[in-house]
UniProtKB/TrEMBL annotation:
<dbReference type="GO" id="GO:0030170">
    <property type="term" value="F:pyridoxal phosphate binding"/>
</dbReference>
<keyword id="KW-0456">Lyase</keyword>
<dbReference type="InterPro" id="IPR001926">
    <property type="entry name" value="TrpB-like_PALP"/>
</dbReference>
<keyword id="KW-0663">Pyridoxal phosphate</keyword>
<feature type="domain" description="Tryptophan synthase beta chain-like PALP">
    <location>
        <begin position="21"/>
        <end position="307"/>
    </location>
</feature>
<comment type="similarity">
    <text>Belongs to the serine/threonine dehydratase family.</text>
</comment>
<dbReference type="GO" id="GO:0030378">
    <property type="term" value="F:serine racemase activity"/>
</dbReference>
<dbReference type="Pfam" id="PF00291">
    <property type="entry name" value="PALP"/>
</dbReference>
<dbReference type="GO" id="GO:0000287">
    <property type="term" value="F:magnesium ion binding"/>
</dbReference>
<dbReference type="GO" id="GO:0003941">
    <property type="term" value="F:L-serine ammonia-lyase activity"/>
</dbReference>
<dbReference type="GO" id="GO:0070179">
    <property type="term" value="P:D-serine biosynthetic process"/>
</dbReference>
<dbReference type="GO" id="GO:0005524">
    <property type="term" value="F:ATP binding"/>
</dbReference>
<dbReference type="InterPro" id="IPR036052">
    <property type="entry name" value="TrpB-like_PALP_sf"/>
</dbReference>
<protein>
    <submittedName>
        <fullName>Pyridoxal-phosphate dependent enzyme</fullName>
    </submittedName>
</protein>
<dbReference type="GO" id="GO:0018114">
    <property type="term" value="F:threonine racemase activity"/>
</dbReference>
Amino acid sequence: MLLQEIPKKEDIISAEKRIHDYVHRTPVFTSTTLNEILGVNVYFKCENLQKVGAFKMRGASNAILSLTKAQLKKGVATHSSGNHAQAVALAAKLSKIPAYIVMPQNAPEVKVEAVRRYGAEVIYCDSTLNAREETLKDVVAKTGATFIHPYDNYDVIAGQATCAKEMIEDTDHLKAIYAPIGGGGLMAGTLLSSQYFGHKIPVIGAEPEGADDAYRSWKAGKIIPMEFPDTIADGLRTSLGERNFPIIQEHIEDIITVSDQEIIEAMRLIFNYLKLVVEPSGAVPFASMIKSKERYKGHKVGVILCGGNVDLKRLPF
């Protein structure tokens, strides 16, 4: 995807209006005690409190609401380890259309149950990207449903951009925004909102060490697909999208990778001081912020808590 084809400022404003009745305007939280401990004033955009428990509801809703009547009639399909799956399922339910969700066999059961609760059909596949894509092709061929890509989609990117737009509007004078990178939809949207609405606030990408394809791709100047990811952050195990990578190349300030132990410690701090439930992927940006805290000592930074769908029976601390 060429940079001149990316969502424009007007596209993000239109997306915000389009999805207004489908999503929450999530709050921004801060903790005086946590700020004192870190020496940084951290403002958390709580997408763990979003519908379906993750930012994915924004992009999925915008993509579905942008379809034609003929497309809507045949429904939508996607592949996802969980949060995008839930978002497509709920957005489809609200739009009163069918949804077919391909999920890997190792997807967290709490996410699979949520997808079914929203009325979507779950189709299991092996736990590889190739298996997801091949199974999805079969589903689309049989149903005629429209594929809503989890992140490599113009309308999804525009929808995800509304998250950072809200955060910028609700929090003054941020010195930086930390956001996760999985497929890159939220990151691309965050970067665009920073450019359009935030006077080009530096955006820092956060990635697990065990799924660091974005960091390696950024350094290499070309997409290096993720193979055999190994991280507790299941939502960030996927590879970068082609539409997202040019935006990341053009605008990202830095990418900071963190270990699973650093992710777990960030989760613990969020649970302890903010009293918020976050999944491992949702804690990765905060873990990256803690790792680089000297960079913004005494300043205000934003951190996107991208999701809260964790199995409470399997907390890592």
